[in-house]
């Protein structure tokens, strides 16, 4: 088992890609901290799936858009699990609007969850590793939109572009501590965040036509990429983005 006895915090893991990551790492022996904005039934279902995979863990609730909550999440995770070895910054939101109609509230929500949350959770996690004199792994779930423009989603693209540069900078700054930092950048994935797209046949067909592999990804395919970067197999990989997009990034054209 590649992740045996490793303790992993996965943010936003009550559903979608986060849940798939939690389950996949649990299958490889990791103990999982399931984090979501609320300790709800879906978070409990993820923990049940982690246990069904032969591992264990706990549920911690907190809004990652709050620095105070970020510090509390790390503290609670360490208190419940004894330590943390890997942080997966997966929590993310998006809001669709033409640029001229974007509200401050929606902008703040997207940037706070997607970028500010990842930044300060990482800071608190790294302080824990430093204080316990251990190396570790940080994997951010970014998006093809750290590179690819996405009209009507300017704040989302800005947050993911920021995550790209944050990852590159921290990979250099944290390397002396034995900490690797990488991104996994999914393309189109069949998850709840894409519910409207999945329900619009014309939009879905236009998108799939841009994907050389001719289909959307399964959440488990993204989880496999996270597993690699979180595992000992990726011990010499840092400062890079692993795209999981079926070739979308290099074949995309606005319709």
Pick out its properties.
SDR_fam; alpha/beta; globular; single chain; 255 residues; Rossmann fold; KR_dom; NAD(P)-bd_dom_sf; 15% strand; oxidoreductase
Layout: helices, strands, pairs:
Blueprint: E1 7-10, H1 16-27, E2 31-36, H2 41-52, E3 57-61, H3 67-81, E4 86-89, H4 104-131, E5 136-141, H5 154-174, E6 179-186, H6 195-199, H7 201-209, H8 219-230, E7 241-244
Parallel strand pairs: 1-2, 1-4, 2-3, 4-5, 5-6, 6-7
Helix pairs in contact: 1-2, 1-8, 3-4, 4-5
Describe the structure.
Its EC number is 1.1.1.47. This is Glucose 1-dehydrogenase. The protein has 255 residues and is α/β, with parallel strands linked by helices. It has one domain (6-243): Rossmann fold (3-Layer(aba) Sandwich). The protein is built from eight helices and seven strands; from the N terminus they run βαβαβαβαβαβαααβ. It has a seven-stranded parallel sheet, sandwiched between helices. α4 links the parallel β4 and β5. α1 (16-27) runs parallel beside α2, α1 (16-27) crosses α8 (219-230) and α3 packs parallel to α4 (104-131). The model has no long low-confidence stretch (mean pLDDT 95).
Helix percent band: 40-55%
What portion of the residues fall into strands of 2 or more residues?
5-15%
Q: Which structural class fits the helix and strand makeup?
A: alpha/beta
> Which residues sit in consecutive blocks of at least 5 with pLDDT less than 50?
none
Spatial ordering of strands, largest sheet: 3-2-1-4-5-6-7
* Overall geometry: globular
Describe the structure in brief.
By secondary structure, the chain is of the alpha/beta class. The protein contains eight helices and seven strands. The protein has a single domain (6-243), classed as 3-Layer(aba) Sandwich (Rossmann fold).
């Amino acid at each position: 088992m590649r992740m045996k006895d490793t303790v992993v915090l996965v943010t936003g893991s009550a559903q979608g890609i986060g849940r798939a990551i939690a389950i996949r790492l649990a299958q490889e022996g990791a103990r999982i901290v399931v984090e979501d904005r609320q300790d709800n039934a879906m978070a409990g279902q993820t923990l049940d799936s982690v246990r069904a995979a032969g591992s264990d863990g706990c549920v911690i609730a907190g809004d990652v858009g709050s620095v105070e909550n970020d510090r509390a999440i790390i503290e609670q995770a360490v208190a419940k699990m004894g330590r943390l070895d890997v942080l997966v910054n997966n929590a993310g939101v998006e809001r669709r609007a033409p640029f001229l109609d974007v509200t401050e509230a929606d902008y703040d929500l997207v940037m706070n969850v997607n970028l500010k949350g990842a930044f300060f959770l990482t800071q608190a996690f790294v302080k824990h590793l430093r204080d316990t004199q251990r190396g570790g792994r940080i994997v951010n779930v970014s998006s093809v939109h750290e590179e690819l423009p996405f009209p009507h989603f300017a704040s989302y693209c800005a947050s993911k572009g920021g995550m790209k540069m944050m990852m590159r900078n921290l990979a250099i700054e944290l390397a002396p501590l034995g900490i690797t930092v990488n991104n996994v950048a999914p393309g189109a994935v069949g998850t709840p965040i894409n519910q409207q797209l999945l329900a619009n046949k014309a939009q879905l067909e236009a998108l799939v036509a841009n994907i050389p592999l001719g289909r959307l990804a399964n959440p488990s395919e993204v989880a496999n990429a996270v597993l690699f970067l979180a595992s000992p197999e990726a011990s010499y990989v840092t400062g890079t983005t692993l795209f999981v997009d079926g070739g979308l990034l290099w074949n995309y054209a606005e319709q």
